[in-house]
Design brief:
Layout lengths: L3 E6 L2 E9 L6 E9 L22 E3 L9 E2 L6 E2 L6 E6 L8 E7 L17 H4 L4 E5 L4 H5 L11 H16 L5 E11 L1 H11 L9 E5 L12 H14 L7 H10 L2 H7 L5 H4 L2 H5 L7 H9 L3 H7 L5 H4 L2 H5 L7 H8 L4 H7 L5 H4 L2 H5 L7 H9 L3 H7 L5 H4 L2 H5 L7 H10 L2 H7 L5 H4 L2 H5 L7 H10 L2 H7 L6 H4 L23 H6 L8 E6 L16 H6 L16 H15 L9 H27 L4 E6 L12 H4 L28 H19 L20 E5 L4 E4 L3 H18 L2
Parallel strand pairs: 2-4, 8-9, 8-10, 10-11, 11-12, 12-13, 13-14
Antiparallel strand pairs: 1-2, 2-3, 3-7, 5-6, 7-9, 14-15
Helix pairs in contact: 7-11, 11-15, 19-23, 31-35, 32-35
Length: about 750
């Protein structure tokens, strides 16, 4: 038989090759680098995939296509190109005769790295079980998951690529001997999350018939965000890449989207030219250089900036603030020292009084005082609750800034009294959120720049980003996270997000879709390894040291639980979590196994636990759960010995039992535990793909679906035994803790 074979598909003719596997000795037929969509370049960047163009003549499918632009996990260099939407087909028979079951593999890599290439995902073991295997590439990072509301950028394009690949399989796989009516999608980590997200998406309905999500579901921690967060990250990314705007309306529009706490945290930076470097000096910075001051202030906790902000105005307003707070000295240093001892809330409550000489008695009049005597005004203001002062404080500036504050809040009148009357009807929180906008003419666009504003128009941002070389986007994409987000244990910048509109990939939040049973009801396998958390100890993901976590344990909390850390509620939840997993011990090398358990639970096990509960409640189809607990005889070359020697099977350790891989080489001696685990696992997966029941034709293994009354799972070791209640005590604790999170969020 010839070394080469040809096939005609909808796009044209392909030439593939016959391959004899060194691993199994069997023969299969390989077609690599098949384009399933147009190159997403130029005007197609950040847009949904379009059907691939056809070609004339015979196209070689003898080597893999380019992967998506990324920093290579192993070489640490930039790999890939934007023209990356390729797939590979491996079939056990030629010419095609009886239709074979099709398995479509979706690779993992935190949505920023990876490919379907055979150096990692060789087809040998699976194809030997008489199935057709398809592996795919899809867009990654910002190029695949950037979302910007209000323009022609669609979200989740990396997931839309996966849908397009499944449509290609539906339309063409029969030509390779595959059955388009019997397709199983499977993936691991972000690939497992992708599988589950495809189950949730109406765009993928009918394109697959069974699903396997390994070490990842749609609830995988840190791997999903809201459209608002995703849009803000897009704007920050554009600014990092050189796009800017001076338009005041753009600044105002942008500032309306910024949470108030971010404005508070950054507000002092926009005053650097006005008040000099005094704010930073008060907070411990000795530099006079404006850029150095700005950089320093970004590292200072917001509450310290708030507590100190009034001190930098001493030369301007004199010692009045301290007098109002009980200090009789006129000496500036004594005043500064005194103010440092005063609780921040008292300073906030009194801060408007020190401006009496400048703005007159208007503030007190607005709050009900008719006197013109400064002392009487001061005495009266001391009796007014702080929240009323905060609510009214912007009104005393009407003569200075005009009626702009009220206009921003919906009042069209120019009459000062009408404006004042209107403002009294507006909730205090709206005034606080909008109060900085009325100063735009005074302070310019600097505040928005400091907060990441890059354009007056989302479309302009999108158009600009399309002109930036892909490698620059890849290099900068992780920088679009806020400093607080980078400090979390799970700092992923470019992930799937909710969308708006009839063609949304995810028409509602993931948890809503699950809770309401809005997902494909197909046979489902999902599971985890016994030490998933080891992955967070390798350099790629380890962003926070153990000592830092010990000092600020809130950083471990999933962003889905608390988008922002620092609140009292967040601290309470963190304290309960730390006590459960660490007792009275510190987070340190000596307790590293507890850390692995905790991260395993938060990132992988508990999200799977919640997912399984929803599937059991809503789906009439069986759900099978597993725990991969086999520790292989040879170590992966990307784990250090100290990490690999911890007990349990690490994240991704099952992959080398399904795929031949040069990056995770294992030697399967006949009759060895590794060989037994490989042979049985491959048989379970392929039998599930063929029939929906993994136990069909699998000797000595009877895998029982999980149910509400019997939460069973298969422990994958050399003996393959059924057990119940996976990590029950830990899951019960997290169930209770999550209920506290939800109850506090609703207060």
């Amino acid at each position: 038989m010839s070394e080469f074979v040809t096939v005609d598909i909808s796009q044209g003719r392909l030439r593939g090759k016959r391959v004899t596997s060194d691993a199994t000795g069997s023969t299969f037929y390989s077609f690599q680098g098949i384009p399933y969509a147009k190159p997403p370049v130029g005007p197609l960047r950040f847009k949904p995939p379009e059907e691939a163009d056809s070609w004339t003549g015979t196209r070689d499918a003898l080597q893999e296509g380019a992967c998506a632009p990324q920093i290579n996990f192993f070489t640490k260099t930039l790999d890939g190109t934007e023209d990356c939407l390729f797939l590979n087909v491996y079939t056990p028979q030629w010419p095609a005769r009886t239709p074979k079951v099709v398995m479509v593999w979706i690779h993992g890599g935190a949505f920023v790295l990876g490919s379907g290439d055979s150096d990692m995902y060789g087809p040998d073991y699976l194809v030997a079980e008489d199935v057709v295997l398809v592996t795919i590439n899809y867009r990654l990072g910002a190029l695949g998951f950037l979302y910007l509301e209000g323009c022609d950028v669609t979200g989740n394009n990396g997931l839309r690529d996966q849908v397009m690949a499944l449509k290609w399989v539906r339309d063409n796989i029969a030509q390779f001997g595959g059955d388009p009516g019997n397709v199983t999608i499977f993936g691991e980590s972000a690939g497992g999350a992708s599988v589950h997200l495809l189950m949730l998406s109406p765009l993928a309905r009918g394109l697959f018939h069974r699903a396997i999500a390994q070490s990842g579901t749609a609830l995988l921690s840190g791997c999903h965000t809201t459209c608002d967060v995703s849009s803000r990250r897009a704007v920050r990314l554009a600014k990092l890449l050189g796009c800017s705007s001076e338009d005041p309306q753009a600044v105002a529009d942008y500032l309306r989207t910024v949470p108030a706490e971010k404005i508070v945290a950054q507000q002092s930076e926009c005053l650097l030219e006005e008040v000099g470097t005094q704010p930073a000096k008060l907070l411990g910075c000795s530099s006079e250089d404006p850029q150095a001051v700005a950089d320093y202030l970004r590292t200072v906790p917001a509450e310290k900036i708030v507590a100190q902000q009034s001190e930098c105005l001493l030369e301007e307003v004199g010692t009045q603030p301290a007098k109002l707070l009980g200090c009789s000295s006129e000496d500036p240093q004594a005043v500064a020292d005194y103010l440092r001892t005063v609780p921040a809330e008292k300073i906030v409550a009194q801060q408007s009084e020190c401006l009496l000489e400048e703005v007159g008695t208007q503030p007190a009049k607005l709050l009900g005082c008719s006197s013109e005597d400064p002392q009487a005004v001061a005495d009266y203001l001391r009796t007014v609750p702080a929240e009323k002062i905060v609510a009214q404080q912007s009104e005393c500036l009407l003569e200075e800034v005009g009626t702009q504050p009220a206009k921003l809040l919906g009042c069209s009148s120019e009459d000062p009294q009408a404006v004042a009357d209107y403002l009294r009807t507006v909730p205090a929180e709206k005034i606080v959120a909008q109060q900085s906008e009325c100063l735009l003419e005074e302070v310019g666009t600097q505040p928005a720049k400091l907060l990441g504003c890059s354009s007056e128009d989302p479309q302009a941002v999108a158009d600009y980003l399309r002109t930036v070389p892909a490698e620059k986007i890849v290099a900068q994409q992780s920088e679009c996270l806020l400093e607080e987000e980078k400090a979390r244990v799970i700092p992923l910048a470019c992930v799937p997000s909710d969308e708006i509109g009839p063609e949304a990939f995810l028409p509602a939040p993931v948890r809503t879709l699950l809770d309401e049973g809005q997902f494909a009801k197909v046979p489902f396998i999902t599971g985890v390894t016994s030490a998933e958390g080891k992955v967070m100890l390798i350099d790629l993901f380890r962003r926070v040291t153990l000592s830092e976590l010990d000092q600020n344990f809130e950083k471990v909390l999933p962003p889905e639980w608390f988008q922002n850390i620092g609140s009292e509620k967040c601290r309470q939840i963190a304290e309960l979590m730390k006590k459960y997993y660490f007792g009275e011990s510190h987070v340190a090398d000596e307790t590293i196994s507890h850390y692995v358990d905790m991260v395993s639970d938060l990132m992988f096990v508990f999200p799977m636990h919640q997912t399984v509960r929803a599937h059991v409640a809503w789906s009439p189809q069986p759900t099978y759960v597993y725990l991969f607990d086999h520790v292989n005889e040879s170590r992966f070359n990307f784990l250090t010995n100290s990490v690999d020697e911890l007990p349990g099977a690490p994240h991704g350790s099952e992959l080398s039992y399904f795929f031949q891989s040069s990056h995770m080489p294992l030697s399967f001696s006949p009759g060895s535990p590794d060989a037994l685990v490989k042979d049985t696992s491959v048989k379970l997966w392929t039998q599930f793909a063929k029939s929906g029941n993994p136990s069909n034709g699998t000797a000595n293994v009877h895998w029982i679906p999980t149910t509400e009354g019997s939460p069973s799972y298969l422990k994958i070791k050399e003996d393959f035994v059924m057990e119940t209640d996976l990590y029950k005590k830990r899951m019960d604790f997290l169930d209770d803790l999550y209920k506290k999170v939800l109850s506090q969020a609703g207060k």
